[in-house]
Amino acid sequence: MSRADPFLDIPAPVVGVRLGWRTWAVIVASTALGLFALGWPLLFPAIGVTPQHTADAPFVFAALLPLVVVLVIAQVTEGGLDARSLAVLGVLSAVNAALRPALGAGTAGIESVFFLLILAGRAFGPGFGYLLGFTSMFASALLTAGVGPWLPFQMLCAAWVGLTAGLLPRRVSGRAELAMLVAMGIASAYAYGALMNLWFWPFIATGMESAAGSLDYLPGAPVAENLTRFGWFTLLTSTGGWDTGRALTTSLALVVLGRPVLAVLRRASGIGRVATGDQGRRGSHLIGSPHGSSNPVQARD
Amino acid sequence: MLRSALPRPLHPFAWWGYAIGLAVAASSTTNPLLLAGLIGAAIVVAMSRRGSNPWANSFALYLWLAVFIVVLRVGFRILFGGGDGPTVLLTLPEMPLPSWVRGIRLLGPVSLEAVLAGLYDGLRLATIVVCIGAANSLANPKKLLASLPAALYELGTIMVVAVSALPQLGESLQRVVRARRLRRGSAARSRRDRLRAVETIIVPVLSDALERSLALAASMDVRGYGRSGSGGRRRTLALGLGAIGLLTVWAFRFLAGSPDVRLAGVPIVSVALAAAGLGCGVAALRVAGRSVRRTQYRPIRWRWPETLTVLCGATAVLLVTAVAEPTVVFPAISPFAWPSLTGPLLLALAAAVLPATLTPPPSMPKVAP
Amino acid sequence: MIRFDGVTVRYASSDAVRLRDATFEIPEGELCLVVGPTGSGKSTLLGCINNLVPRFTGGIRTGSIHIDGRDTTLLQPRELATTVGYVGQDPLAGFVTDTVEEELAYSMEQLGYGAAEMRRRVEETLDLLGIADLRDRALRTLSGGQQQRVAIGSVLAVSPRVLVLDEPTSALDPIAAEEVLATVSRLVRDLGTTVVIAEHRMERVIEFADSVLLVGEEVRIGPTREVLAASPVRPPIVDLGVRLGWHPLPLTIREARRAAAEQRRAWLESPPPLPAPAPGGRPVLTAQDVVVRYPQKLAVAGVDLVLRSGGVTALMGRNGCGKSSLLWALHGAGRRDGGTVRPADGARIALVPQTPADLLYLATIAAECAAGDATAGLAPGTTLSLLRRLVPRIEPAAHPRDLSEGQKLAVVLAVELAGDPDVVLLDEPTRGLDYSAKAELRDIIAAMAAEGRSILLATHDVELVADACDRVVVMAEGEVVSDGPTRDVLAGSALLATQVAKLTNPTPVLTVREYLDVAR
After folding, report:
1. Most confident stretch, B257-266, B359-368, C478-487
2. Which of A84, B64, B66, C95 has the fewest CB atoms within 10 Å distance of its CB?
3. Can you tell me the distance from the alpha carbon of C155 to that of C105, in angstroms, rounded to the nearest whole number?
4. Residues on chain A touching C60 (C-beta within 8 angstroms)
């Protein structure tokens, strides 16, 4: 055939969500606002400002964060996700939602299993992990009818976990990779628990000056005082129980399933195939394919 | 009979608007009688207008969660003390704690004021939870997804995929577990082998799910998914960042109680910041969604029952926050005064329960073929 | 309507050329049947029509394709959605929403149709495909045939000019397949849509196909009879016609009967000597009064069955009649609520499930085989050498998920056979297999039987049964309704008769090979 023929060359498609500098800008801004929305009870005393309206603050942020989450999602998905990444996101969100026990969506972060989120972030890159954090929590809330003011906070925290997992150093592999992911799993389990507690701590335990309980948030009290109170609150309510349970299940799942599941996920990226009858006889070309171990998002660029 | 009153599902936004109204009303009071009344209204409305869908059954779960919150809140007050008042109900033996545990007391005297403070606070949060539960069981989540702004088109599609993938996952899991039983003869005895068994189930299920998702992606592509160009990127970015920035500043000023210029009693700077932030956000979504051309099949139209339902929620908020007297809305704990309901509060409760009769009943269950 | 000019395709992930220099044209309103041996690139060709290949799969395509006069090189599959409707093999995997109505509306929602227009078209499509009574049903609760009809409806709703069907019935039982193909033929007549279909039950389609596209080393298109005469894969009746030099080549049973009228009369006068089934061996498995009861359903209602060594038994019946439940109950891994299953002294039973991939979880075939050796306590390499005997061309380093359905089946079968079972139960092994894979399966079954094993396979494939089995058990509603030698059961039934048996009726000749043997 002559080279003058129309020539269509499409590289093997990969699963991943590209993060441009615009998206990064929005991610950074929303992360700052998210941390502020979670950490204001401790932040204000630290900069020497006495918070006002403490009773209203949780409601203010409960109203504000949905808008911010929506803006971030709109920015990350802008320009359209390809159908392949979208379908994989949907299926993995469903798996994540199924892994969360039915009661988990009820209140702030009682229980969730992060292992697939971390592995997907690792396999498909930070953009995918970030988005999967949002969609997993949202899917779980929709499926268990658990939509509420806690949802944007959960979504944001889970998205941070997915993003971090995607940003871990690429070169690490083998046992070191697994160890790194397990460490990440344990850290995220406790951090997620503490952050979700921090969100609803002033909500459930705001003491009126006259009648403050000893675990309550005291607006205007020094940061050390409130930190102690929060420390005890979170230790007593969740760190000892739920969070440790979550850290254990996550790390156990990572140790046992980490490598095989990572292999399965990485296979889904970089294979161009429709479900056709004669796809199979393409044989073993996938072994050692260039996309097997590299960052799919980079590979696409 | 009016066409809009025929049996049909109500627009999900109407239910959410109503429930948020009730939740806001509940959040601005600690009067236990009013809170109990709001819980009652939410229960009446949810019970009379929820359909026979799976999400409708979640309501009981929320009621249990509400009970749990009240018990937890009161229990904390009894266990860890605090809010001590003059009226001591009973004295529990206090547990000595090391001195570095600052400010924490275990057990000790339990005062009426402490218990009441816990009860009032807990009841308030419980009411909010029940209102949200009502919205969750009343509003159709699929229609909610379809009504999302166009900029969230991808998110909505991901959710649709997730919701329909879940039952397939269940089937796939059952099949693999059954197939695994064929290897039972050489069953694993050591713990290591048992862990291995988890892998032999998870890996095929996940591979199957991912393979299906690729087939699904092909099918979506073929059927026209994502036939939209990308819109004004730079403008979206500026608007989005502007919204987040403005709202952050506003929230900080609000919480820090920063001084403001008041004009006719309205704090100008605060209002301007909030309005500009929200405006930027809405505009960003508009711009991002402009490129998406997509329509909805059999949309639920917004008719007068929807408007009335939202108005009921708004009326309740208005009556509780603006009309009723603060001493009634926040009954005193110390010294203790019996809570009471006044005219405006009774009206608010009446408004809260009205949607149970104002709205059309949910669609009749179809006869199974 | 569809014009290919020198189209050559190579996937991004491998160097092999999947389609070489395809040049052809399909006129408007025609139904074109695509045939070709395994791996010839049928699916690749169909995918090219709406640019799924290579836009979605990745790869390199040269040459040009014109659909409805428009060059599609620069278009995405989604931009062709209103021109080309594409339906794949497994309808369930392609469903985006979860109820019938929403699925029919999905394409139109994506393309931005108005609400009123959408409503009208959904109602029309519901009637067109005869699925109006299913409108509110959840897609997962439908039967396979209904699901495939919904899938066809969901692409027809936007009235594409071309409908591409890639083996739409390969996952269905014969009755459901009939339902779908009848619908397709009606659409061609009523709507005048151009249809391109790849279908392994060719005999059901060739009647109303206007042309046949043969994909192989070269791609050629032409009138049905002409192309089929030269095709390496063809339905039994056509095969017989070609071998006996009938002219014109018969495409239907009626035409073939006319051509064979003389032969049939001769056989009526003096029945031909037909091979009798070999005597059975010793009983290796005796089941009595087997009952399997699920909460909503009685799946197996008291079945007696004796399997003998060296015997190949087919278990037939419509979907949901209890075939699968019976196999699992016989093996012992499944549920059994009553009756007894007694293997002869020390007889081992193996079962290959319907989706063999469920048992594969390692990264290479070699690893799977090694794991099989380890669990069965065999010398390393036993399973792999067994697999090599079953399918000599298999690559041990390949990933199990990359194999064809037939090869996956072979891997699981090899792992099972390594345990040297006396009874092998196969649950619908022919699902998703094409002609050549079925031929391989038939040889494997014959080899197993020759080793003295007893084989019981659940299947819908009458032609394979006629070729490979010596006994047939037919189930309905959990009970055995007939049980006897293959020839008696198949030839005596209207629904289960092979094509050749329909032709020679009342003389019970089952296969082309038999016909040629006794006619000589």
Report:
1. C478-487
2. B64
3. 9
4. 7-10
Question: Considering the domain boundaries, does residue C6 fall inside one?
Answer: yes
**Does the residue C390 lie in any domain?**
no
**B298 contacts on C by Cβ (under 8 Å):** 101, 105, 115, 118-119
Q: Are residues C159 and C69 in the same domain?
A: yes
Q: How many domains does chain C have?
A: 2
A282 and C57: CB-CB below 8 Å?
no
- Which residue range(s) make up the domain with C497? 283-348+421-519
Report ipTM for this prediction. Answer: 0.87
Q: Which of C212, C234, C256 is the last residue of a domain?
A: C234
List the domains of chain A with CATH numbers.
21-269 (1.10.1760)
Q: For C6, which residue in chain A has the nearest alpha carbon?
A: A1
**Which of B 26-45 lie inside 8 A of A, CB atoms?**
27
pLDDT at C91: 87
pTM given for the model? 0.83
Please tell me the predicted confidence (pLDDT) of residue B240: 86
Q: Which of A22-26, C9-13, C45-49, C255-259 has the lowest mean pLDDT?
A: C9-13
Whether B158 and A215 lie within 8 Å, measured CB to CB? no
The chain A residues in contact with chain C (CB within 8 A) are: 1, 5-13, 83-84, 260, 263, 267, 270-287, 289
The pLDDT of residue C485 is 93
Query: Do C293 and C224 have their domain in common?
Result: no
- The reply to whether C444 and C341 lie within a common domain is yes
C168 prior amide bond cis, ω within 30:
no
Last residue of a domain, one of C234, C252, C267: C234
Q: Do C110 and B223 touch (CB under 8 A)?
A: yes
Residues C102 and C166 in one domain: yes
CA nearest to A50 within chain B: B256
C308 and C224 co-located in one domain:
no
Together in a domain, C78 and C205: yes
Q: What is the pLDDT of residues B205-238, one digit of tens each?
A: 999 888 888 888 889 888 888 765 544 456 778 8
Q: Please check whether residue C71 touches A, CB under 8 A.
A: yes
Number of residue pairs across A and B with CB atoms under 8 Å? Answer: 294
Three-state SS letters, chain A: CCCCCCEEEECCCCCCCCCCHHHHHHHHHHHHHHHHHHHHHHHHHHCCCCCCCCCCHHHHHHHHHHHHHHHHHHHHCCCCCCHHHHHHHHHHHHHHHHHCCHHHHCCCCCCCCCHHHHHHHHHHCHHHHHHHHHHHHHHHHHHCCCCCCHHHHHHHHHHHHHHHHHHCCCCCCHHHHHHHHHHHHHHHHHHHHHHHHHHHHHHHCECCHHHCECCCECCCCCHHHHHHHHHHHHHHHHHHHHHHHHHHHHHHHHHHHHHHHHHHHHHHCCCCCCCCCCCHHHCCCCCCCCCCCCCHHHHHC
Q: Please tell me whether residues C230 and C287 are part of one structural domain.
A: no
Confidence of residue A108 (pLDDT cuts 50, 70, 90): very low
Look at residue C247 and tell me if it is in a domain.
no
Residue C73 lies in a domain: yes
Q: Is the pLDDT of residue A261 over 70?
A: yes
In sequence order, the β-bridge partners of residue C290 are C303
Q: How confident is the model at residue A279 (pLDDT cuts 50, 70, 90)?
A: very low
pLDDT digits (tens, 9 = 90+) for C74-125: 888 888 988 999 998 888 888 988 889 999 999 999 888 998 999 999 999 9
Q: Do C80 and C207 fall within a single domain?
A: yes
pLDDT digits over B133-179, tens only? 899 888 888 888 888 888 888 888 888 888 888 888 888 888 898 88
Could you tell me the CATH number of the domain that includes residue C303?
A: 3.40.50.300
- Bigger pLDDT: B108 vs A287: B108
Length of chain A measured in residues: 301
Kindly list the residues from chain A whose CB atom is less than 8 angstroms away from the CB atom of residue C170. 277
- Nearest chain C Cα to B300, which residue? C115
pLDDT tens track for B45-60: 999 888 777 777 778 8
